[in-house]
Amino acid sequence: MRTNTLQENQPIKFFLLALLLTTPFLLLGGKKLPLPVNLPGSALMFIGLLLAALILSYRQDGMRGVKELVKRAFDYKKIKNKAWYIPILLLSPVIYFLSYVAMRLMGLPLPDPNVPILLALPLFLAFFSEAVFEELGWMGYALDPMQKRWGALKAGIILGLAWQIWHIIPDIQAGYTASWIFWHDLQGVALRILMVWIYNNTGKSVFSSVLVHAVDNVSWAMFPNFGSGYDPFFTAIFTCLAAGIAIIGWGPKTLAQYRHASTGQI
Q1: Tens digits of per-residue pLDDT, 35-75?
Q2: Where are the domains of the chain?
């Protein structure tokens, strides 16, 4: 009973410690980072997420726990069915492309695409590193106890809300409107549900979540131009539709029981 209680309390401790460790970045990080995309210095608070996960892992299992957590960032061998790389790598680009097409069809103002493709690789490397820090906390440390208690869908929603609440101050510091932040946060919650769906169908691979996170950020940064024409209303709609398909097709309890096959594979 005590072990179960400790496991249930892990996410709460993580959220509180992460909040404490990221507060200095929130208070001091309003200045824009030297990047082509619009990101304030407070975006560096992902460092606090990793520190929180490492500290709590050390308290629970010493250096063994720290090593096990860090190893999860590159646990690609868990992805037995390579077909899952299709949603891992293409889900976000397709959503952003559909959003761009919808905006064009509706005649909304958009800049002519002028994003150097050669920047995609360095942007991916930068966002991949950031995603490792974040996802070792969100997915590597916090998710599994939450799923055990509430099931996959509820855990995804709660984790998604925490993820987006964590982004609100940086979004305000970046100068975004309340409407923009609302739709962007809705898109983020739906994306987190999809990340849990992919995670549970890839042998609980944190590496899959890191890739989804990094590719989503690159997709946003490559949206004409460097995200300047991005409207989260459209990505929220398409991401929610994708999440709805995953929930209906794979079931809310685990998001891993495919309705048309005996296994949870695509």
Answers
A1: 777 788 888 899 999 999 999 999 999 999 999 999 999 99
A2: 2-250
